[in-house]
Specification:
Chain lengths: ~950, ~190
């Protein structure tokens, strides 16, 4: 029966060797020999084929050394051996007997684990590693763990190490043998011993044949890959460390051996350089992470408030980065060249403070309003000169100004859209609701939370979300009075609309009024009247959301829906305010242009009178020198627009900071210290501490950015201002959050809303570029200020450059390319491409659903198959156990061990099903014939069957039998 | 874990960098924090273990409902007491680090949720998991019918092969679709 069993087993073997690569198969052959020798599992994995036959002799010899090595490992060295098979077989028997003795001793002393068992394990683990199934292996480990005894746990750890060492040693050995066989094929076995000793320091690449070199290279590459992927493996550090060291040693040792002569040197150099490069990359990575600003601050906030609050700060940092780049563009390409190479201050009228304003030009109040010297500086559009090139570099200033303006917007679009796409990729495609419950279950905990209070809030919110989800699932959500709710909702929306309209009108009114004040002259008015517009806008932005909050309680929405409504309303409010502001500005621009016409006419009159006067006084027609401050000038609406935006930003920033200080800090201080002498608990009761309002803050940030985009064409200083603002608010808000806010009651997910914010940013970007583009395209620039003065339209600068700086054919090509006949088809093509991409993505989504269904079906089928296989295995097991018990009767083995091993069997079985489940038994070849008799499992069975019970020590049977049926079970499933 | 307690040797530092998702600074910080947890006489030992009850006092883990599980999963201790060596600690931080892959994160998440270490998430595991997530207080707990409903819903969604448990590959399938698992499965020192 046993023999039959082995035959069965034998049949299954070639499958393995077919799977493994050529390189491995030899290794396996080595290993199998060792195992056969040491642990009595008859794993003879040999490839059939001519190659193998040719090499058989070598291998046999190798096998001999291998075996000997095994003996050495167990301190059972047999000095002299003969080549003849029979004798070797005999000696093997001897050594195995010895081994068993040893093993038993080891077991008795209870010290280290049995070598043989370890080897099996090694073999197993190694194979799986090769097939890159870390998980399965992990399961095996787990299964082993379940054996329970601490001794085995220890063994497992050792196993990890041993596995690697064993492997490396093996490979080394193999190479060695190869090197040897190719150079001196007939070395005696004593040589091998020496080799063994010298193993560490002798590598002889010259002796390697090209194909072996290739193999070696492959092995080295494999090791390198292993090193690379090591960190992604869920192993314990000890195991990883051992693997790493071993692999590195291996790579170092054999890397040098690759290549010959010059090639070898080159190769060594390459290796050295890659090593250096890797090190540099790692250092650079470290450097990069060290360079990311505010990392620690954000981490601290993360741990206190969870990822959603931190997401605001990450967003803030991201904005900061974008603004840094915008600032670099405007500063480097516009402001600095003009300041350094353009005409100096005071050289022409547009660069000089007019006489009327000179007295107050340095007053702080004026400067704070960005009038006076600030107005006539590089900070604003009007200062720039229209000369085509500046400085010795022939820097094309107007062109650069225009391109920077366009580039700012283009870059922003690019970054926002790219980030959106990345976020969309990360958040997975499509099917949002397919794993609703599972996501709530498995991913709802935020591991960053390190604050007990936040954790409590999180517990509460998770519980409610569970309950809500269950309720929704049951759909027992009944509305008690649908008419009342509807009425209330309509009412609420009506109220909100009233608020929006009111705020819009208020802003319009205020802007018109301020224009009247401006006509009167600012000096006659109070501070409030001068700053009315900005203050009103900021105050509206502050109080309207609170009003909306109150109104939204009428609606009785689900909190998440309510939040979305709230966000939408605030968005509408901000947008409405911004656009009313812009419309009012447009009115003002038109007024200024009318004024400009009059001024232009006056100037020609003035010039004529000036020349007439001078001509009459002096007979010589010498050029008139008039102080540029005295020259009459146009109102320069561009600078006015820039100023308005800058003022808006400043006042917005101030309100934000002041709200922060009063609303958060003062409130926290009051609550904290008045609590000692108050009638109710302030901390838990009404005022309590404020929460950090993520969505409101993000919205504020987004609108602020929108204003930057809108205004930066007319005020190049805006990005710089914004950088300062963001920098300060980073520190201020971090501080405020840590010292006076409490974690949110309802902790929202960060990433879910990430793209929502990005989408808003995109919308704002689009809306803010609209007015800017409108003004650039349709309004002629002022005649006496700015880089485009004297041109009909601002974009004429492109034409001018094309005509004068490029060869004529280029401008011809350009004019053809910008022909509507070409542009329209192009747009059509893009639309078609978008349509195509969208429909493909739709079909992919459908295919996904189909695949999921298919997967489910397949899994069910597999399960059924597995069940059948398991049943069969059960029967086989029974059979094997019966034979084992037969043997057992003869040997006085302990029952304990038997159970132990069956345990292993059952635990190993499961993961292996996954791996080997679908391998049908391979066809039976003439395998037994090819096997050298020294490793023929049949012979062993024969031996055992004949003399086993009488001639063998009791330990033998006990050790080997359970393993015998464990291995086939591994194969079968 | 170098030769001296206060200093990591250069070789081991680079090895740790190679084997974890952590940067040099993070490893050094981790080492500092770890040695703070050690007893005085242990600081010179290479394989010193910090018991679980000390690890879970770390502010980063203190309020985590899975802190004991995390310790058990990452511990290589033979007594299964959840005590960690420095290397285990690094493994923990690496798996929870920012740059760790989804695979490794979901692997460890699975093991953390697998309360009985049997390789699958069965009903008992899921129930324990829900209880962990809803907190200890009694009023927050779900009623038994709610629990039943919840678990059956979860199994319906994620148990693809319908064997009544969620295995690792099913779990990873679910997790890989989740938008915010990677961003929330993080612990930073």
């Amino acid at each position: 029966m046993v023999e039959k069993f082995f035959q069965d087993h034998e049949r299954k073997m070639p499958r393995d060797s077919l799977i493994t690569s050529e390189n491995d198969s030899e290794q396996d052959a080595d290993l199998s020999l060792q195992e056969e020798h040491e642990s009595k599992t008859h794993r003879t994995k040999r490839r059939d084929g001519d190659r193998q036959k040719k090499k058989r002799r070598n291998e046999r010899r190798k096998g001999g050394t291998r075996a000997r090595e095994g003996e050495e490992d167990l301190q059972a060295v047999s000095e002299k051996r003969e080549r003849s098979k029979r004798k070797r077989a005999k000696s093997k028997q001897e050594t195995s007997r010895r081994e068993n003795n040893e093993e038993e001793e080891a077991q008795l002393t209870g010290g280290k684990g049995t070598k043989a068992r370890k080897d099996i394990r090694n073999e197993k683990t190694r194979r799986m590693e090769k097939k890159e199934v870390g998980e399965v292996e992990e399961n095996v480990d787990k299964g082993k763990k379940k054996q329970g005894s601490t001794k085995k746990g220890e063994k497992k750890e050792d196993g990890g190490k041993q596995l690697v060492k064993g492997k490396a040693r093996e490979v080394k050995k193999k190479k060695h043998k190869k090197a040897e066989t190719s150079s001196e094929p007939e070395t005696s076995e004593e040589d091998d011993d020496e080799e063994e000793d010298n193993d560490k320091d002798v590598v002889r690449p010259e002796c390697l044949s090209p194909e072996e070199l290739e193999k070696l290279k492959e092995a080295v590459d494999e090791r390198k890959k292993l090193i690379q992927s090591l960190r992604g493996k869920p192993w314990s550090m000890k195991k990883k460390l051992a693997t790493l060291r071993e692999s590195q040693e291996f790579v170092e040792k054999y890397e040098g051996a690759l290549g010959k002569g010059k090639g070898r040197k080159l190769y060594a150099y390459k290796v050295l350089m890659t090593k250096k490069w890797m090190k540099f990359q790692r250092d650079f990575e470290n450097f990069k992470t060290a360079c990311i600003p505010w990392e620690m601050k954000i981490k601290e906030i993360e741990s206190h408030f969870g990822s959603s609050v931190a997401s605001y700060f990450i967003f803030l940092r991201w904005m900061y980065g974008i603004n840094m780049i915008l600032f670099g563009l405007t500063f480097g390409l516009v402001m600095v060249p003009e300041a350094l190479m353009g005409r100096p201050y005071g050289s022409m009228p547009r660069k000089t403070v007019p006489r009327a304003e000179e007295a107050s030009a340095m007053d702080f109040a004026v400067l704070w309003d960005f009038g006076g010297y600030a107005q006539y500086s590089v900070l604003f559009y009007g200062y720039y000169n229209s000369q085509r090139t500046v400085g010795w570099l022939k820097f094309r200033m107007p062109l650069s100004y225009f391109l920077v303006g366009v580039g700012t917007v283009a870059y922003s679009y690019m970054v926002v859209i790219r980030t959106m796409a990345r976020n969309a990729n990360e958040s997975g495609v499509g099917d949002d609701n397919s794993f609703n419950f599972s996501w709530k279950m498995f991913t709802s905990w935020d591991y960053l939370i390190g604050n007990a209070e936040t954790a409590d809030n999180k517990f509460a919110s998770i519980t409610t979300s569970f309950k809500e989800a269950i309720l929704e699932e049951q759909e027992s959500h009944k509305d008690d009075n649908i008419h009342l709710t509807r009425f209330l909702r309509v009412l609420a929306n009506f109220l909100v609309l009233c608020c929006l309209a009111g705020s819009g009108y208020l802003i319009y009114f205020v802007v018109r009024r301020s224009q009247k004040f401006a006509l009167d002259g600012l000096e006659n008015h109070t501070w409030w009247e001068r700053n009315e517009v900005n203050m009103v806008m900021s105050l509206l932005g502050m109080f309207c959301p609170m009003l909306f909050d109150v109104i939204s309680t009428l609606e009785n929405y689900h909190p998440r829906v309510a939040l979305q409504w709230q966000l939408g309303r605030i968005f509408a409010l901000f947008l409405g305010n911004l656009y009313t502001f812009i419309i009012a500005l447009m009115d003002e621009i038109n007024l200024k242009r009318k004024e400009e016409k009059i001024v232009k006419f006056n100037i020609t009159m003035w010039e004529a009178s000036l020349y007439n006067g001078t001509v009459s006084e002096n007979s010589t027609a010498s050029p008139v020198t008039i102080n540029p401050a005295d020259v009459p000038r146009g109102p320069c609406w561009e600078t006015m627009v820039g100023q308005e935006f800058v003022r808006l930003i400043i006042s917005d920033t101030m309100t934000t900071y002041i709200t922060l200080l009063i609303g958060d800090f003062l409130r926290a201080v009051l609550v904290r210290f008045l609590n000692y002498c108050w009638c109710w608990d302030l901390e838990a009761g009404f005022p309590s501490y404020s929460e950090f309002d993520v969505s409101g803050n993000v919205l504020g940030l987004i609108f602020n950015q929108g204003m930057i985009w809108m205004g930066s064409f007319y005020a190049p200083c805006l990005p710089a201002l914004n950088v300062i603002r963001l920098h300060v608010s980073m520190y201020l808000q971090c501080w405020a959050v840590m010292c006076c806010n409490v974690p949110q009651e309802r902790v929202f997910k960060a990433s879910g809303s990430n793209n929502f914010y990005m989408a808003m940013l995109l919308v704002i970007l689009f809306l803010s570029t609209l007015p800017a583009i409108y003004t650039i395209v349709s309004i002629p620039p002022s005649f006496d200020c700015g880089p485009f003065s004297g041109k009909n339209r601002m974009f004429d600068v492109i034409h001018e450059t094309l005509e004068s700086d490029f060869p004529p054919w280029f401008s011809k090509v350009f004019s053809y390319a910008s022909n509507p006949g070409l542009v329209l088809p192009f747009i059509l093509l893009m639309v078609l491409a978008i349509y195509y991409l969208q429909s493909t993505s739709k079909s992919y989504r459908e295919a996904n659903v189909e695949l999921k269904k298919k997967l489910q079906m397949q899994n069910e089928e597999n399960k059924r198959k597995n069940k059948r296989a398991a049943l069969k295995a059960q029967m086989d097991l029974e059979e094997a156990r019966m034979t084992a018990q037969e043997q057992q009767r003869n040997n006085n083995a302990s029952v304990q061990d038997q159970e132990d091993d069956t345990d292993i069997h059952s635990s190993v079985q499961r993961p292996c099903q996954e791996k080997y489940g679908c391998n049908p038994p391979p066809p039976v070849g003439g395998r037994g014939r090819q096997m050298p008799s020294s490793r023929d499992p049949g012979s062993r069975t024969y031996n055992r069957g004949n003399h086993g019970p009488s001639g063998y020590l009791p330990g033998f049977a006990r050790q080997s039998e359970p393993r015998m049926y464990r291995v086939p079970s591994l194969q079968r499933h | 874990m170098g030769t001296t307690a206060s200093q990591l040797s250069k070789e081991s530092l680079s090895e740790y960098q190679e084997l974890t998702f952590l940067t040099k600074q993070e490893i050094l910080l981790a080492h500092k924090r770890f040695t703070e947890l050690l007893e005085k006489h242990e600081k010179d030992q290479i394989d010193a273990r910090v018991p679980m009850n000390k690890i879970i006092t770390l502010p980063e883990l203190k309020s985590n409902p899975f802190k004991e599980r995390i310790c058990h999963v990452f511990s290589t201790s033979e007594q299964k007491d959840g005590s960690l060596t420095f290397e285990d600690f690094l493994d923990l931080l690496s798996a929870f680090s920012d740059s760790a892959t989804l695979e490794i994160k979901s692997h460890y998440a699975f093991r953390i949720f697998d309360f009985d270490d049997d390789g699958t998430l069965d009903c008992a595991d899921l129930e324990k998991l829900v209880n962990c997530l809803t907190g200890e207080t009694n009023d927050a707990k779900l009623s038994s019918t709610e629990m039943k409903q919840l678990i059956s819903n979860i199994l319906e969604e994620s148990d693809i092969d319908k064997d009544g448990t969620v295995n690792l590959s099913e779990f990873q399938h679910v997790i890989s679709r989740s938008p915010d698992f990677v961003s929330s499965f993080k612990i930073v020192l």
